[in-house]
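seq:
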Amino acid sequence: MPRKPRRETPIERIFRKVMGRKMPQSVSRILLRKPTAKRINGSWNRGSRLGTVGTIKRLMLCGEKGRLLDAYVTATDRQAEAVKSLSAVAAKDNRTAFRESLVHAEQARQDAEQARLALHLHSETHGC
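struct:
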């Protein structure tokens, strides 16, 4: 019976979307460490499996790309918050508040798309 292919982790998916290519083995070895459990000061310390944006930035050599990645992460966080508030307003029966929240969520989506595009264009022109 053939084995199932390994599922793509969220950090691999973000890397693929931002960089436009699959994550190299040298990068995934750093970002996707195996979980560890060590006893430190009498309590169990379970290591994180996923890397952080800071870890990705340390692997890059271009400062502008790091700035653009920060802007993209901030924009997507704002979009997530806007969608969360839109969801909360949708549960209530207030059309004006819903329309305002919908406009805010759409603006946040456009901001995130612009940040992603700026990051992509920088990668294409600068080659980093």
